[in-house]
Design a protein that fits this description.
Elements lengths: L1 E5 L5 H10 L3 E5 L3 H8 L10 H11 L2 E4 L2 H5 L4 E4 L14 H13 L5 E4 L7 H15 L7 E4 L9 H6 L4 E4 L3 H11 L9 E4 L1 H32 L3 H9 L20 H15 L4 H27 L8 E5 L14 H11 L3 E5 L4 H8 L5 E3 L3 H5 L4 E4 L4 H4 L3 H7 L4 E4 L6 H6 L3 E3 L7
Parallel strand pairs: 1-2, 1-4, 2-3, 4-5, 5-6, 7-8, 9-10, 9-12, 10-11, 12-13, 13-14
Helix pairs in contact: 1-3, 5-6, 9-11, 9-12, 11-12, 12-13
Bound molecules: nicotinamide-adenine-dinucleotide.
Length: about 450
């Protein structure tokens, strides 16, 4: 099938490459020259396990092509997937300008009966806006407008994206007619999706499903962070509490870690967008708003506590060096968008401290955000980052940090303060090694 994809980001590139892998003839449009330059050399412009090999394979097979010109993609596909960014506006609502700009090109050029599918995360009601925009653009260029619009929200997790595409837990088709549903089923037919995991619903329900899933996970994280503070204040240990919770299969085990909060390109913006959608619809989303507020405070909290300790000890931040392990918002990605590490680093750098950070994959993307601070430096290894440091903050739970003994950390550091934002170290081992160990909910561990 001829398929077009708009956007070669974390979602669009995975979608385009995997659809080519399924045998489709895919044209992917991307506006970023930097991303296109990397792609022209067969390189994935970001870190995603398995992507490089898949990309090379599909480019060599001729099933996947890239273009800087959305009009080329528009003229190609009988099914066209929009995977452009929908970043937050200043008030927290979603910026649909990239999506609607792509719609203008599609309306002007796409085959008259194409199916236009939104993969980007978009507020409920965007499908209708998109349909109107397509009709308007088509009519303005004197063309018939018989496009159909569908929603096929993306549920991939960065770091596991290929697996999530090839073995999805569920696939949602938001459609308003049988032909669109049949076409989407054809697109994914090679995956042999089970009926139980294929959900067909209205476009609006599909749009809301994506926000509902992300907001639920964000709420769990913020709830555990509040609970961790209560545990610290009352003599309980959050690790024991979590064990008791997760053995209840109604609760489940996932997303129950307390820590320095959630980040990434999805949770923060999707939760705030959901809150704005609630306001606009006159249906206030109080729980999502609370999760957002708690997370905002949580992301900077460890830096705040560190500065407070220094102040109590009469130490000037300008004389101190902080090592940060992990810049990415989670392991197995180089994505630093909204990462807690950046929030903490910025707070410490503004206070005058020196920050030396190490991340196995996100050094480049992290440095692009923090390189403007003269006292920010990258370390080549985790060991180099802590050498002579006064404090260590662990902001991402990369596998390699789990195996570093607390004693080695203590020996390398000048000071002994450790803020473990991801519960990576054992509190007992850290304290036994002479580290002053801080982690949410583990005061009584
Ligand atoms: N990253 C994730 O884990 C994830 C998961 C699920 C859903 N989503 C959603 O998917 C969407 C895309 O996310 P992302 O992380 O891939 O974003 P991204 O910023 O990495 O990529 C978007 C790309 O679209 C390109 N673009 C913008 N306008 C274009 C146009 N008219 N034609 C062609 N390309 C255009 C941009 O240059 C950019 O490279 C967002 O709505 C996001 O919320 C993301």
């Amino acid at each position: 099938m001829k398929i077009s994809v708009y956007g070669a980001g974390y979602v669009g590139l995975v979608q385009a490459s995997c659809l080519a892998h399924l045998g489709h003839d895919v044209v992917c449009a991307e506006l970023s020259t930097a991303r296109l330059t990397a792609l022209a050399q067969g390189k994935t412009p970001f870190y995603e396990p398995g992507m490089d090999a898949l990309l090379s394979e599909e480019l060599a097979a001729g099933r996947l092509r890239f273009t800087h010109d959305p009009a080329v993609a528009a003229a190609h596909g009988e099914v066209q997937f929009l995977a452009v960014g929908t970043p937050p506006l200043a008030d927290g609502s979603s910026d649909l300008s990239y999506l609607l700009a792509a719609a203008d090109t599609i309306g002007e050029r796409a085959p008259a009966e194409s199916l236009i599918v939104t993969k980007s995360t978009v507020p409920v009601g965007t499908g209708k806006k998109l349909a109107q925009r397509l009709v308007h653009a088509a009519r303005a260029s004197g063309r018939p407008a018989a496009f159909r619009v569908a929603s096929n929200p993306e549920f991939l997790a960065e770091g596991n994206a290929l697996n999530d595409f090839l073995k999805p837990q569920r696939t949602v088709f938001g459609v308003s007619d049988a032909r669109s549903e049949a076409q989407l089923r054809d697109v994914y037919a090679p995956l042999k999706l089970s009926e139980a995991q294929t959900l067909v619903m209205s476009v609006e329900s599909a749009e809301l499903s994506k926000y509902a899933a992300n907001a639920m996970l964000a709420v769990r994280i913020s709830f555990m962070n509040e609970l961790a503070n209560l545990a610290d204040a009352t003599g309980a240990c959050i690790d024991s509490v979590r064990e008791a919770m997760q053995l209840d299969d109604r609760v489940g085990a996932k997303f129950l870690n307390s820590g320095c909060g959630y980040g990434g390109s999805c949770f923060p913006k999707d939760v705030s967008s959901l809150v704005k959608q609630g306001e606009a619809a006159g249906s206030v989303m109080r729980i999502a708003a609370a999760a957002d507020e708690i997370n905002d405070a949580q992301r900077g909290e460890m830096a705040r506590r560190l500065l407070q300790i220094w102040q109590a000890e009469g130490r000037a931040p300008a004389e101190c060096v902080v090592a940060i392990w992990g810049l990415a918002f989670k392991p197995n990605t180089d994505d630093v968008r909204e990462a807690p590490a950046l929030v903490m680093a910025e707070r410490l750098l503004h206070a005058g401290a020196t920050v030396r950070a190490y991340d196995p994959q996100a050094s480049e993307t992290g440095a692009a955000e923090l390189g403007r601070f003269p006292k920010f430096a990258l370390a080549a290894t985790a060991a180099e980052a802590v050498q002579g440091a006064d404090a260590l903050i662990i902001a991402t739970e990369w596998q390699e940090f789990l195996s570093i003994p607390a004693g080695i950390v203590k020996q390398a550091m000048r000071g002994s303060l450790v803020f473990d934002g991801r519960s990576v170290l054992s509190p007992t081992a850290a304290r036994a090694a002479g580290l002053r160990y801080h982690a949410f909910g583990r005061v009584h561990a």
